[in-house]
Design brief:
This protein is mainly beta. The protein contains no helices and ten strands. It is globular.
C-alpha cells in the first residue's frame, strides 16, 4: 500500500465560517493505496482547541468501504492516529460529515487519511476532503 496525496485546500467563507475544501482527487493508482490530505497547519487554520466539522465528499464511487482518520504530527513526517472519524466510510457518492472535538488538542500538523487499512477500494473513486471552523 502506498500513500497518495490529495490536491491542496482552497478557502471560502460562508456566514463568517472558514470552509477549506480540496479540489477533487485523482483516482488512486493502485486499488489498495490510501489518500492523505495536504497538511493542515493550525498556525494558518485556527482549529486547535475547538469543535469543528470535518468530512469528505465522494465524487465518484469507490469499490468498497474504507476507514477515515484524522492524524497529527510533531514534524509533518511522522504521523499518529488522533481520531478515527469513520471505520466504515460509505463508498457511494455524497457528503459524509463528522463533528470533531479538538478541545485540548494542540499539534503543529493535522491531516486526513482515507483507507488507512489498505482495503481494495478500486482505482476509479475520487473525493474531496473538507473542514469548517470559526
Amino acid at each position: 500500500m502506498a500513500i497518495e496525496t490529495a490536491p491542496a485546500f482552497v478557502t471560502t467563507t460562508v456566514n463568517g465560517y472558514t470552509i477549506r475544501t480540496t479540489t477533487t482527487s485523482s483516482p488512486l493508482s493502485h486499488t489498495n493505496n490510501s489518500l492523505v490530505s495536504t497538511i493542515i497547519l493550525p498556525s494558518a487554520d485556527a482549529i486547535e482547541n475547538k469543535k469543528i466539522i470535518m468530512g469528505l465528499d465522494i465524487k465518484v464511487a469507490f469499490a468498497r468501504t474504507a476507514t477515515l482518520k484524522l492524524e497529527a504530527s510533531h514534524n509533518g513526517t511522522d504521523w499518529i492516529d488522533l481520531e478515527t472519524l469513520d471505520a466504515s466510510v460509505s463508498y457511494s457518492t455524497g457528503i459524509q460529515s463528522y463533528l470533531v472535538d479538538l478541545t485540548g488538542v494542540y499539534t503543529p500538523n493535522f491531516r486526513f487519511h482515507y483507507n488507512t487499512s489498505g482495503f481494495a477500494v478500486g482505482t476509479s473513486g475520487t473525493l474531496q476532503f473538507f473542514f469548517a471552523y470559526k
